[in-house]
Amino acid sequence: PFCPGNEAATPPEISTIRRDNSAPNAPGWTLRVIPNKFPALRIEGEIDRRGEGIYDRMNGIGAHEVIIETPEHAQDLADMDPGAFEDVIGAYQSRLLDLKKDERLRYVMIFKNFGAAAGASLEHSHSQLIATPVVPKRVMEEMDGAKRYFEYRERCIFCDIVVQETKNRKRLICENNSFILVCPFAPRFPFECWIVPRNHLSNFEDATAEQLKDLAAILKDCLMRLKKALNTPPYNYVIHTAPITVRGIDFYHYHLEIIPVLTHIAGFEWGTGFYINPTGPEDSAAYLKNII
Amino acid sequence: PFCPGNEAATPPEISTIRRDNSAPNAPGWTLRVIPNKFPALRIEGEIDRRGEGIYDRMNGIGAHEVIIETPEHAQDLADMDPGAFEDVIGAYQSRLLDLKKDERLRYVMIFKNFGAAAGASLEHSHSQLIATPVVPKRVMEEMDGAKRYFEYRERCIFCDIVVQETKNRKRLICENNSFILVCPFAPRFPFECWIVPRNHLSNFEDATAEQLKDLAAILKDCLMRLKKALNTPPYNYVIHTAPITVRGIDFYHYHLEIIPVLTHIAGFEWGTGFYINPTGPEDSAAYLKNII
C-alpha cells in the first residue's frame, strides 16, 4: 500500500517531498508522511483520566504516523542515495517540530523496525513516530540515571562517553565531524550500536542542518556495516531525545540506538531487566570497524 | 543431552528425585537439577567491583542451574502427571532455600522458556534458575512501585488485586483454595496471565506444602488452557518473589507471570517501555475461561 499509485489506500498525507509539481496524494513524491491506518493512539478527543477501582485509565490520545522513506518498494535504507537519506532524517525533525505545538503531548518517539523479526509488518521501507501524552517509562529511567550522574559529577554522562570512547577507541567504529558511532560499554545485544553527538545537545529537534547531514551519513554507514557483517539482519533503531516539554538541559544528550535482532528475549530478561550478551562490545566494534 | 543415559554429557547433578535406589548421575531419576553447562554466572570467585574510567565492572558471580522436569524427551509440561508437576514446583522452592545460604547472593530468578521463539535452546522440557549478586532492575522497579502504593494506602497492591478481581470476575480465569489465575488489568501481551496467592506472602520460599500443591495445580491448568487456546504457543513464565535478603515484608506479594510469545518486541517497546496490546484482558480471560 506504500507504493506510488496506491495513495488512495492510505490516509491522506501529512507532508511530502516532491521533486515535481505533482498533486497531493498522487504519485511524484520521494518521501511521504501519513497517519498510521491502524493507530496505537489517536489525535482526536480528551485525555480523560479516571479510576476503575484500584486501577487507572486514560484515553489513547496521541499521534501515530508513518514515514514512507522511498517510493521504491524494494529499496533498502542502507543502500539509499545520501541525499534521500538526509530527507528521511529531515522529515523526523520537521514532524517533531510540528507535533511539539500540540500542548497535550509530552513525547515524540521516532523509530524504525526493519524485518519481520524486528516487528515490521510491511516490507516497503518506512519509519514510525508515536507521540504520547505522557513521558515514556524508559525515557524517564534514562533521564533519571543521567540526572543522578550529573548531580554527583556535574558532567553530562554522554559527553563523558564521547571523551572516553574517542580516547581509548576500543569500542569506536567510526566518526565524523558531528558524531561518533560506538558499541556501548554494556550492550544488551551483540552488535548493538549507538550514535552519539560530539557536542552537548539535549533535544534532537534543535540539531542544526549540518548535524542532520552528518547524522544521515553516519546512520547510513552504520546500517551498511550491519548489513554486510550480519547478512541484512532485522533491526530496530530509536531516537533517544529529551521530552518535547523540556529544552536545553545540561544532564541529557540526544542519541540514536541501533539494535540488530539476532536473539530472542527470554524469561531471564523479562524477569530481571538484565541482558545476557555473549559478544563483547570490543569484539563487535573491531568487526564492524573492519567492514567495507 | 537431558535424556536418561546421557548423564555424563551434563555437569554432575546438584539434586535429583529418584523412585528407585539408582546411583547418582545415572538413569532412574524423574527430576534432575544440574548446573548449566554454559553458565551466565559462575559460583566460584570474588565479586571484585572496579572502575574502568567512567564505567563500572564486576565479576559474574552467581549460579545458573537447569531443572530437567522429566526424563521423557517429548513430554510437555502441560500434559504432565499432577504429582510430577508438584515435584517441579517443589524443586524450585528447595533450590531457592539452598541458594539462600550463600551470603554473596541477593536474588534467585526462576523461569521457564518454552519453544524456540521464547528463547529455549533445547527441546527437552526444562526450567532455569539464575542467582545474582545484585537485586535485578525489574525486581527493584516492581518492589518500589508496590512500596509507593503501600505508603499511600497502607494496603498491599497484590492483596487489592485479589479482592477486586475475585469480586468483579471480568478478568478471572479460574481459582483454587490458594490462588487466582487472572489476565492482569494492563497486560503487555495478548493472553498474558498472572497467578496470585489469595493470602499475603512476600517470599515464594515460605509457601507451605499445601500452597505448592495448589500452585502446581493452577499453573498446570493455565498451561493447558494456553496450549488448547493458542495451539501450543511458545511462552515464558517467571516467579516474581521478594529478594532472598528480605523476609516477610507487608507491601510485596509473590506471584507468577506467564507470557505467551505471539508477537515481536519492536522499536516502540524498546524506546518507551510501553507495550501495544490489541487484545484486552477481559477478552483474553473470557476466552481462556471457556476452554476445556
UniProtKB/TrEMBL annotation, chains A, B:
GO terms for biological process: galactose metabolic process. Its cofactor is Zn(2+). Its EC number is 2.7.7.12. Residues 1-25 are annotated as: Disordered. The keyword Zinc applies. Residues 157-270 form the HIT domain. Keywords: Carbohydrate metabolism, Metal-binding, Nucleotidyltransferase, Transferase, Zinc. GO terms for molecular function: UDP-glucose:hexose-1-phosphate uridylyltransferase activity; zinc ion binding. The active site is at 126 (tele-ump-histidine intermediate). InterPro entries: ADP-glucose_phosphorylase (IPR053177), GalP_UDPtransf1 (IPR001937), GalP_Utransf_C (IPR005850), GalP_Utransf_N (IPR005849), HIT-like (IPR011146), HIT-like_sf (IPR036265). Belongs to the galactose-1-phosphate uridylyltransferase type 1 family. This is Galactose-1-phosphate uridylyltransferase.
